[in-house]
Amino acid sequence: GGPEMSRLKLAILPTFLFLCLILGGSSRGVVANAVLQVAATLILAWALLSGDPPAMTSAARRLLLIVAAVGLLFVVQLLPLPPAMWTALPGRDFLVRGYALLGMPQPWMPLSLSPYDTMASALTLLPPLALFLAMLRLRSWRAEHMFLGLLGGTGVSILLGILQVRSGVGWYFYDITNRGVAVGAFANANHFAT
User: What pLDDT sits at residue 25?
Assistant: First the structure.
């Protein structure tokens, strides 16, 4: 690991933050979100396999507990429950009737009525989780570089917003969007404003 490798390592997290700001932000950007989630998985693996993590502060440990609680919430929603349990939960009558109409026995079902959507929601949290854990466990990042990634993503979005307002029709990445107003790399003006 010479100086070039050190510079490359220092560029990974700010570049990922920049890409999150430019590529993320829409439920319809399936390919872009998938790219971010794969990159997040690689960053998570790098962070978790790091052999020399810095000491964690008490504030970082508390944040890590919150992250673990959110992860546990997703796991609890996806755990299969026996028929006697899930059929007793509110809002499950239509499922009970559906299986009865089909003449099928009640299967084990998760707490979530839409497990695929629950899993998709969990996957959208991979990029911020990767950034968080990488910043906790890796020594290969600097706050000033992260700020440059944030500033770069903001700058590109503002320039895109100017082009969108000035052109009136071009420079939009999504079919369903707020045409005529600045949305930057996002799907709508509210996301861009936030």
Answer: 64
Written as one string, the DSSP assignment of the chain is --HHHHHHHHHHHHHHHHHHHHH-S-TT-HHHHHHHHHHHHHHHHHHHT-SSPPPPPHHHHHHHHHHHHHHHHHHHHHSEE-HHHHTTSTT-HHHHHHHHHHTPPPPPEES-S-HHHHHHHHHHTHHHHHHHHHHHH-SS--HHHHHHHHHHHHHHHHHHHHHHHHHSSSS---SSS-TTS--TTSSSHHHHH-
CA angle 82-114-105, nearest 5°? 35
- What six digits make up the tokens of 65? 């507990």
Tell me the pLDDT tens digit for each residue of 32-72: 889 999 999 999 999 999 888 888 999 999 999 999 999 99
Going by pLDDT thresholds of 50, 70 and 90, the confidence category of residue 98 is very high
pLDDT at 1: 60
